[in-house]
Give the backbone structure.
Amino acid sequence: MPHHFVPGRHAARVVIGFLTALLVAACGGGGSAQTASQTPQMSAQAQLGELIFKDATLSASGRMSCASCHDPALGHASPFAQSPVALGGPGLDQQGLRNPPTLRYLRFNTSFHFEPDGTPMGGFFWDGRAASLQEQARGPFLNAREMANPDVASVVAKLAAAPYAAQFRQVFGDQIFTQPDAAFDRATFALQRYQQEDPDFAPFSSKFDAFTAGKAQFTGQELNGLALFNRPDKGNCAACHPSTKPANAPGALFTDFSYDSLGVPRNQAILANADPNFFDLGLCGPVRADLASRTDLCGAFKVPTLRNVALRQRFFHNGVFTSLDQVLRFYVRRDTNPELWYSTDTLGNPIPYDDLPAGLRGNVNRTEGPYNRSPGQGPALSDSELNDLAAFLRTLTDGWAP
């Protein structure tokens, strides 16, 4: 495994997380879920952000909004069940390159940086290229495969014609639409404020939250799934998806906002992949010119939160899997049974990590469990254990009620 992922640090954190989780379960302690009565009124900027977020007229097609790719009913993740990636452009017929990630719990993220031990952390988008929620919000408006506006002025002209234009002027100044760059900046700022202030983006309202608050009990299957999630010799999920509360949030985030190279299979349903020379390289890709020389980071993508993972329609950056069960089987059988996942060579042998160029496949994480296996070995988790793990993961869905 490349040095920047620091397996020892992850392993130590998992052991601590596992012990803490057991203590929380035994004592009925932990963070508390937010309730509606505690929700403050959103600021005027955030209220504008909500209107912008849901406004499809701000796209070239007139039919795509932020919510089109980040559906609140699915944890603000992609609704594109029939396509691995979003369809955008002026005619909504231009296929994107990546699966739209969830926007939930991103208010606790930071800008991209390297930890003292060299671990890449933070940043927004799958490759961390945006430094903030505001910067992230800029991209889709001008992306030819998404909302497809030709320039900032085009976006601002649509804002000036929106039903809430007077409200926009009232908040940001009567002359704001005469200054396109400033108006676009304020629109993306409003989107950031909306995601930071609306509790729907970080409700901490799952059964897991009720459990840690001592207000719900897990079934035996869910408890075993939690233990498997934390155990370094089993699921080892908490290595990158900590199940304990960080200092800056009221509950566990189930991501450390780090990056990993998982060797997910190439998705032939993505049209760009018809070119055998095309590879999405993540952290060292073309849009990360600042990291182009860091070939050890090629193939690494952001670790997403596992909250609401059971609602996802597509998984991983390339949307290659369509069910949670597929994902869990891949994690434990990626290297024990590569023939299940990868394309084959002319002799019929599987080509592990086929979505990376051959010279970069050594970047894939093979030292941390459950990846530290080889063909012929048994998987780290049995089928019944995978069922228990899936049962626990379903407790992370927001909106739980007894």
Summary: The first strand starts at residue 87 and ends at 88. Confidence is low (pLDDT under 50) at residues 1-39.
